[in-house]
Amino acid sequence: MDFSALMVDKDEDGKTSCAIRSLTLDELPQGDVTVKVDYSTINYKDGLCLGPGGGLVRNYPHIPGIDFAGTVVDSSSPDFLENDQVVLTGWRVGETWWGGYSQFARVKSDWLVKLPSSLDTYHAMAVGTAGLTSMLAINALEKQGLNKHEGPVLVTGASGGVGSIAVLLLSEMGYQVAAVTGRKESEDYLRDLGATEIIPRDELNESTKRPLEKETWNGCVDAVGGTMLARILGQMKYGGSIAAVGLAGGSNLPATVIPFLLRGVNLLGIDSVMQPIEARVNAWNRIEQNLNRSKLNKVTSTKSLSDLSDLGKEILKGQVRGRIVIDVNN
After folding, report:
1. Which residues are CB-contacts of 83 (< 8 A; sequence separation ≥ 6)?
2. At a CB cut-off of 8 Å and minimum separation 6, what does 273 contact?
3. How many CB atoms lie under 10 A from the CB of residue 193?
4. pTM of the prediction?
5. Rounded to an integer, what distance in angstroms lies between the CA atom of residue 325 and that of residue 290?
6. How far apart are CA 160 and CA 181, in angstroms?
7. Mapped to the 3 state alphabet, what secondary structure does 128-161 carry?
8. Among 30, 176, 192, 236, which residue has the fewest nearby CB atoms (within 10 Å)?
9. Which helix (H) or strand (E) segment is 27 a member of?
10. 210 CB burial (10 A radius; 0-12, 13-18, 19+)
11. Could you give the CA distance from residue 320 to residue 326 in angstroms, rounded to a whole number?
12. pLDDT digits (tens, 9 = 90+) for 267-305
């Protein structure tokens, strides 16, 4: 059986290029489950893999796509049967293993999660890796004591994929949400998702010599890192926690230990790539329970494999807002 996939290749001079190619099932990597892919998404890592690789791609030719959702067509695993609907995120699929920009994928069964019964493959990818990361962050904050009655939760990088879904989920779960954005045109978009307060990025993007400021935030989902994260540490309420999920503002943290020592602030690292299966299943179940599909549909657009070359460049420039689902069969 022939099918289409977007492949990235590298020439002798080290220059990469991507094109849609025809493959057969025999060309897929080894694995115990074969999935007919319905949808994938575009993420920052995908932008890197569609271009020069960013150190993520080890071997060429390569199929990017760090997540996908579809239907099992063949399985030698007792955990998955034909026609099971599944979702995959992480495990370095799309980086070191052929990923979701393909009409078929073959992977290890340990990497798959069965979709909750009321969540279809389209909405699973409208949520995608970004939404899973958001829910993992919320779960970590709640485990640390986050309470919806003790003040606003801050979301940085709120117009991006992780931030958008974090705002939506937190709002649906009853939290008061303050959204940070540098895009004036995104304010209505974020309010539609459930944000009750918009914080201009410039208000938090500069460092201060004061290690502690007014106690403002009950919790925080931070997708920015860098100077902004350092600033927010000093604005957390006593015992508050920040879930760090990204580094759009840089990997350095120009902070002091004072917020940790005098206010008992917690900084929680969130990894979605190698997250244990139990935590993934729990997160997807909570997403199903708290997902407002009408809101999600408003912030989601659909593109095809042929659009990915341009989308990869746009997401690396920070020009992608909300969620973009890739229909691999269109």
Report:
1. 71, 72
2. 90, 91, 92
3. 29
4. 0.94
5. 20
6. 9
7. HHHHHHHHHHHHHHHHCCCCCCCCCEEECCCCCH
8. 30
9. none
10. exposed
11. 14
12. 999 999 999 999 999 999 999 999 999 999 988 999 999
